[in-house]
Amino acid sequence: MRRVHVCFFAALVLAGVLVAQSPAANVRYSQAQAAVAIVDGKRFGAVQTRREGADATEATVLKTNATVAGQSSVSTGELGPTGSASASAQGIDLLNGRVRARSVTRETTGAPPGGEVVGLRVDGVAYGPIRQARTIELEGGGQLVLNEGDTGLRLTTDALAVQIAVVATSTFTRALPDPTPTPKPKPTKTPKASPTPTATPVPKPPQRLTAGGYAFPVYGDVTFDSTYGAARAAPIVAHEGNDIFAEFGSPAVAVADGRLTKVGTLEISGNRLWLIDDNGDAYFYAHLSSFSSIARNGARVEAGDVLGFVGNTGDAEPTPPHVHFEVHPNGLEEDSVDPYPILRSWQAREDVPPGAYLQRLGADATERPGALVTVRDFIAE
What we know:
Elements: E1 7-11, E2 26-34, E3 37-39, E4 42-44, E5 47-50, E6 53-62, E7 67-76, E8 86-94, E9 99-107, E10 114-118, E11 121-122, E12 125-126, E13 134-137, E14 143-148, E15 151-156, E16 161-166, E17 171-175, E18 242-245, E19 251-253, E20 258-266, E21 270-277, E22 282-288, E23 290-291, E24 300-301, E25 306-309, E26 322-328, H1 340-349, H2 357-361
Parallel strand pairs: 1-7
Antiparallel strand pairs: 1-8, 2-5, 2-17, 3-4, 3-16, 6-7, 8-9, 9-10, 9-11, 11-12, 13-14, 14-15, 15-16, 18-26, 19-25, 20-21, 20-24, 21-22, 22-26, 23-25
């Protein structure tokens, strides 16, 4: 789903020296590892090689306040410290636009590593090209460290920790094995026919998510199917949820008791929010036409409370109105799961009546804050 464009190329290379061998000697080998980005302690696009070789990978990082897309590559060699590394990122946009840079580069051709940050803007203040180590304190807390050690840009706040353009060199040591005699070949036996392999079962969602007590996230007539994992245009790459289609302005309700967070608007997801329930599971709602009056950060809600209204904001503008809905067991920083079987379970059980909010708000048609009452196409009239 989510956010702004950052193009990223990261390489982290580690190289070493092969020492003279003798009986019972240790040998030092080259090794290399790389990651497109390190965001909140999690590596994306990780790749690794040892001794002599090269490898590369691509990855896209999608977060509510940072997007990184790019490539990483590694190479290693023996017989000397021949390893080198370089990393480059363009179009960096972090913390919803508070920290932006045209490019960040870092390389190990010198000692210490060198590089520069170009076109930096922090909280509206522009900086010229920065080639030396520098620290910038952010308004309201947080720190931005540039050109320090192996990292071109390091951002640390209460909401986000990210490293961009990371490079280094190193080696590892391993003992040579004792020579062993070549075993005599044994007569071969005709192998028995192997059983036909069975398909790997699709992982089931945690049992607590289908055990009852949940509300379906959209009130009214809906249609939806399992599109989890379907290809999407960059920077999304893959669909992480299901799209629930309904009439424009249909209420989107809390699926469980919990608290709201990250209530706001982004370029791709449009009007969006997260619900963290009392079990610690997280649910993402996107493309809402607007929010209800109770939708605010930190608000306590009950299953069935109206959070917003179905729409097609963000990059869903050309599509019919719907809510993009994701399920992240154990928290919003954890991987998502296919919500389709979970949604089907909630829809069939109706443990929380889908119109439960009417008991508190009433059935009148009075306009409420954030509610979309009428849609008119003035151009067509």
